[in-house]
């Protein structure tokens, strides 16, 4: 996809050895974005994934913030994992603290994932895409950093016991990357709590303006996501912005394992956008009740299962999803 190629084309040539890892990392960031936003009105459309500053409209809303954070996190994560797997000659475990006291009853030891390495290379690649000096550029760099902080902040301490027959009188511990899903979930929470700063007006491209921008961003923790603009409600299609709207989107209603966010997806995607919920029934056929017959055949029955799916539709229906007033919040 285009954003992946951006990394490859604009990354410094000296870092060519890392480019497949960077591309894989950017890709995993995109996939995680799609997973985290599968049941949101904005669902991480391809068009939104343009990270580089050249060309196109640059939005600076909450979703832009998430895209930057998850992308730089994905790149840092993959580089770090590659390093631990021995994919690069110049990098290995982080054992810089081994032998030192880490806390009560434990010492640093073993092979910690080398996030310092992933962080440094990711910074070189991803931050290099940002060539501007304005508030948007500062916002993007801040959110790139927030993504890298999220990788570091979700690392897990893993320990091994030592002592007579595993009595655990002392332990050695090392830091491991979590599943990337956990980084995604962490950043989704940060997305909901993102801070809006008011910098688009006023602060021009003067030295004083740039100073004001730098001061503002310095005062905000790099663990938090930051945006400058409010988001559209994402209900309606807007081709200029590359937005598809929610008409035709699937939503979820009933299901054993649905969380609260998923269960409310029909209301959020359809009802709150003035659309009806359309029920579509389908039947699936699959093999079931298979029995083994002596000798040697397996015979199965064909089982039919009814599945009901829900979609946002413009057509007014007498039953199901009464049309609500369009809401303004995404
Ligand atoms: C790093 O890992 C990714 C998958 O996790 C893989 O696609 C890529 O080729 C690896 N890079 C190197 C240099 O081995
Ligand atoms: C799409 O968004 C742009 C930028 O916010 C706006 O100017 C335009 O009116 C919108 N178009 C439609 C069809 O809503």
List the helices and strands and how they pair.
Elements: H1 2-10, H2 19-36, H3 62-84, E1 101-103, E2 106-108, H4 115-127, H5 135-153, E3 156-162, E4 170-176, H6 180-192, E5 195-196, H7 207-218, E6 226-227, E7 250-251, H8 260-263, H9 265-269, E8 276-293, E9 297-313
Parallel strand pairs: 2-4, 5-6
Antiparallel strand pairs: 1-2, 3-4, 7-9, 8-9
Helix pairs in contact: 1-2, 2-3, 2-6, 3-4, 3-5, 3-6, 4-5, 5-7
The structure holds 2-acetamido-2-deoxy-beta-D-glucopyranose (NAG) (2 copies).
Organism: Myotis lucifugus (Little brown bat)
Function: Ligand for members of the frizzled family of seven transmembrane receptors.
Protein name: Protein Wnt
What would your notes on this structure say?
The protein has 2 domains: 205 residues, no CATH class; 66 residues, Endo-n-acetylneuraminidase fold. 35% of the residues are buried. The protein is of the alpha/beta class. Strand 5, helix 7 and strand 6 form a beta-alpha-beta unit. The strands form 3 sheets. It has a 4-stranded mixed sheet with strand order 1-2-4-3, with no helix packed on it. A 3-stranded antiparallel sheet has the order 7-9-8. The protein has a two-stranded parallel sheet with strand order 5-6. The radius of gyration is 25 Å and the shape is flat. It is built from 9 helices and 9 strands. Helix 4 packs antiparallel against helix 5. The N terminus is likely disordered. The two termini are 26 Å apart. The site of one 2-acetamido-2-deoxy-beta-D-glucopyranose has 6 residues, from helix 2 and helix 3.
């Amino acid at each position: 996809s285009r954003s992946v190629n951006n990394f490859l084309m604009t990354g410094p040539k000296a870092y060519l050895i890392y480019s497949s890892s960077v591309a894989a990392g950017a890709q995993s960031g995109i996939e995680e974005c799609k997973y985290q936003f599968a049941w949101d009105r904005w669902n991480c459309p391809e068009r939104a994934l343009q990270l580089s500053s050249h060309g196109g409209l640059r939005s600076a809303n909450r979703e832009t913030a998430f895209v930057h954070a998850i992308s730089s996190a994905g790149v840092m994560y993959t580089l770090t994992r590659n390093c631990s797997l021995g994919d690069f000659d110049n990098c290995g475990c982080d054992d810089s603290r081994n032998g030192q006291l880490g806390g009560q009853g434990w010492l640093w030891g073993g092979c910690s994932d080398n996030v310092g390495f992933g962080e440094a290379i990711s910074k070189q690649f991803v931050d290099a895409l940002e060539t501007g000096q304005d508030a948007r550029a500062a916002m993007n760099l801040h959110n790139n950093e927030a993504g890298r902080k999220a990788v570091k902040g979700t690392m897990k301490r893993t320990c091994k016991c030592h002592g007579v027959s595993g009595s655990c009188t002392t332990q050695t511990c090392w830091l491991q990357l979590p599943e990337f899903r956990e980084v995604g979930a962490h950043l989704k929470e940060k997305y909901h709590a993102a801070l809006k700063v008011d910098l688009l007006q006023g602060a021009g491209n003067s030295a004083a303006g740039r100073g004001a921008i730098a001061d503002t961003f310095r005062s905000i923790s790099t663990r938090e996501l930051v945006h400058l603009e409010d988001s559209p409600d994402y209900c309606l299609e807007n081709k200029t912005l590359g937005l598809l709207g929610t008409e035709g989107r699937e939503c979820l209603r009933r299901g054993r394992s649905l969380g609260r966010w998923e269960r409310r997806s029909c209301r959020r995607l359809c009802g709150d956008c003035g659309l009806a919920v359309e029920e579509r029934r389908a039947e699936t056929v699959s093999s079931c009740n298979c029995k083994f017959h002596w000798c040697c055949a397996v015979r199965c029955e064909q089982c039919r299962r009814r599945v009901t799916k829900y979609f946002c539709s413009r057509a007014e229906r007498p039953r199901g999803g009464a049309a609500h007033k369009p809401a303004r919040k995404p």
